[in-house]
Write a structure and sequence with these properties.
- By secondary structure, the chain is of the alpha+beta class.
- The protein has four domains: 1-92, no CATH class; 94-126, no CATH class; 134-211, Orthogonal Bundle (DNA polymerase, domain 1); 241-393, hpI Integrase, Chain A.
- The chain has helices spanning 48-63, 74-87, 94-108, 114-124, 134-147, 152-168, 178-186, 192-211, 241-250, 256-265, 269-273, 306-312, 328-339, 347-360, 363-370, 374-380, 387-393, and strands at 8-12, 15-24, 27-36, 39-45, 280-281, 286-289, 300-303.
- Strand 1 (8-12) and strand 2 form a beta hairpin.
- Helix 9 (241-250) packs across helix 13.
- The longest helix has 20 residues, at 192-211.
- The radius of gyration is 38 Å and the shape is rod-shaped.
Length: 404
């Protein structure tokens, strides 16, 4: 018999006995270590073959319930033998199996049985998922966004955010966990609003991966991840009606539609820049903000107030870009400087929303028109302008030529 390495372990049906070798005066002796009645025992043999037989005898005595090895009553002996029969195909010790089972039951805390959890896991993972890296998945999403006609700004947002994400996670998408996402966001050297934007896009990417079959249904990378605030505190500013009149009077005719549509319809600067005259229905009284032109990628309808209609009628066309100049920010800054009013970030849109809420009292309706959530309208715009000031805002009309 070929001599094995020592210590040598003999295992049968989950019961193990160890054989060691000791050299004394140039002769080998073999020690058999086993347990008898819960106590550690040892037996010495002069040959490995004899030690192996002793180990087999000790194991057999344990498995058959020999009183010299293990004292059990009839019921306990029967339960022990059945347990050994159950785990025999697994080649695992009975105490290890019992410990593992206990840990599982503790984790489940009575919410389900181990078998139920296993069946659910097997059901959700029955189909082998395709392996794909984060970088490759990002490229596929970018291609689909282009094919779906997503706006240029939305595609740029996805490219910038997910490009950085792919660099940070040079791995397969299936290996990403919520804890990794949480660490990634917390380490960003950015303002909370930026982290919120990144979190939202990562969530969108996660849902897209599930939809495409790259992640198991129900996978949520954002589970337990901090939900950063999206509110911009202290940034809601308004113009007065007098300031708006002065701004209109000082504006270059090429950007006048941008000013009045922003102030009297509440469209965002980028949305107005993408607006076509065919999207403005003066006779029917509404502006259509197409999904590909909207910041939220959602189509919406915005009413045209009477005063806005009077501003747009002289310049209206059947089609073509409403704003044809590229340097709109420069021209707007010049108009603000000439009118001698204080520059205010997004004040045209903010004033429209504030006035519209004051005028209508319908938060949900204004949220739909503005492309915001009702929560944002309530927290940022409610009661910023009184109804009388709102009425004055929407009464601003073009001045007749020669009027002072």
């Amino acid at each position: 018999m070929k001599m094995p390495s020592f210590p040598h372990k003999v295992t049968k049906q989950g019961v193990s006995v160890t054989i060691g070798r000791v050299e004394k005066d140039g002769q080998n002796f073999f020690r058999v270590l086993f347990r008898e009645q819960g106590k550690r025992k040892q037996a010495w043999r002069s040959t490995f073959e004899a030690a192996k037989r002793a180990a087999d005898d000790a194991i057999e005595a344990t498995l058959t319930g020999d009183a010299s090895a293990l004292k059990l009553n009839a019921s306990d002996r029967h339960a022990y033998l059945r347990a050994m029969e159950f785990i025999a195909p697994l080649n695992i010790a009975l105490d290890h199996a019992a410990r593992e089972y206990a840990e599982i039951r503790i984790m489940l805390a009575g919410k389900a049985t181990p078998a139920e959890v296993c069946r659910d896991w097997l059901k959700r993972n029955a189909v082998a998922l395709p392996c794909i890296t984060v970088a490759d998945a990002v490229e596929q999403l970018k291609s689909q966004s282009l094919a779906d006609g997503k706006s240029k700004s939305r595609r740029l947002q996805l490219t910038t955010t997910l490009g950085a994400f792919a660099i940070a996670f040079n791995c397969e998408v299936s290996s990403i966990t919520p804890s990794l996402i949480s660490g990634y966001l917390s380490e960003m050297q950015s303002k909370e609003r930026t982290r919120r934007n990144h979190r939202d896009i990562i969530g969108f990417f996660n849902r897209w991966l599930v939809m495409r079959g790259f992640l198991v249904k129900g996978t949520d990378w954002l589970e337990g991840v901090q939900n950063y605030t999206a509110r911009k505190l202290g940034e809601i500013t308004n113009y007065t009606a007098d300031e708006m009149r002065r701004l209109i009077a000082a504006a270059d005719a090429r950007i006048l539609p941008m000013i009045v549509i922003g102030g009297f319809a509440g469209l965002r600067h980028a949305e107005i820049a993408r607006l076509d005259w065919s999207d403005i229905y003066l006779d029917e009284g509404f502006i259509e903000v197409k999904a590909q032109n909207a910041k939220t990628d959602t189509r919406r309808i915005v009413p045209i107030k009477d005063n806005l209609k009077q501003f747009l009628l002289p310049q209206a066309k059947e089609s073509g870009k409403v704003i044809t100049v590229a340097n709109t920010f420069k021209l707007l800054a010049e108009a603000i400087e000439v009118s001698k009013i204080k520059p205010k970030q997004n004040a045209l849109r903010h004033t429209y929303i504030s006035a519209r809420v004051a005028e209508s009292g319908d938060v949900a309706r204004v949220a739909d028109e503005a492309g915001n959530s009702p929560q944002v309208i309530r927290s940022n715009y409610l009661k910023r302008i009184r109804p009388a000031a709102a009425a004055e805002w929407f009464s601003i009309k073009p001045q007749a030529k020669g009027a002072s």
